[in-house]
Automatic annotation (TrEMBL):
The chain crosses the membrane at residues 21-38, 71-92, 104-123, 129-147. The keyword Transmembrane applies. It comes from the Eukaryota. This is Ankyrin repeat family protein.
Length: 173
């Protein structure tokens, strides 16, 4: 994990303003595209009305795709969304604190809506459970990557100044 972290975040603080803006636009497009996939899944969702009572109420609003096809589509979608989400948060660092905090709260609500949207359209309870477990694992791994990056940045900066770091937490996985 340390190698992946260093590859992803190497020189992230040295990105120029124009490059940062371009990357934020690309990440925004990735967030929009993955979120749109949860709102309009391929093949659509089961339709129905509750006027006759002749349909299975648990099917209406669920994805038409089979469970395996659904998981094969939405597991990579989760990965793209979570990685784009955290990279966007990392790139917001130079923005003013109040503005950055407001954007982070809005992005957090977007992530919650993304997760809930996939859960709502999941064709079965099992696929919903699998995706929820997968999202928790990906979230934890991504948080560890950020923590490792920040700790390595803190320790390298404190050594650059000439005194050892007061907080050194090894995260070698």
């Amino acid at each position: 994990m340390a190698k992946a972290t260093s590859m992803i975040f190497h020189n992230m603080d040295d990105i120029s303003g124009d490059d940062r803006n371009a990357i934020l636009v690309i990440l925004g497009l990735l967030l929009i595209a993955t979120y749109q996939a949860t709102l309009s899944p391929p093949s659509g969702v089961w339709q129905g009305e509750n006027t006759t009572g002749s349909y299975d109420a648990t099917v209406v609003g669920k994805s038409v795709m089979s469970e395996i096809t659904f998981l094969l589509l939405y597991i990579p979608t989760y990965v793209v969304f979570i990685v784009a989400f955290f990279l966007t948060l990392a790139l917001l660092k130079p923005f003013p604190r109040g503005f950055r905090n407001a954007l982070q709260v809005l992005l957090a609500f977007l992530a919650i809506c993304f997760d809930q949207s996939i859960s709502f359209i999941s064709p079965t309870d099992l696929s919903s459970l699998i995706l929820n477990m997968f999202s928790v694992v990906i979230f934890i791994l991504t948080v560890f990557m950020f923590v490792e990056y920040r700790v390595s940045m803190l320790s390298s900066r404190s050594w650059d100044v000439g005194y050892p770091s007061m907080l050194v937490i090894p995260f070698s996985v």
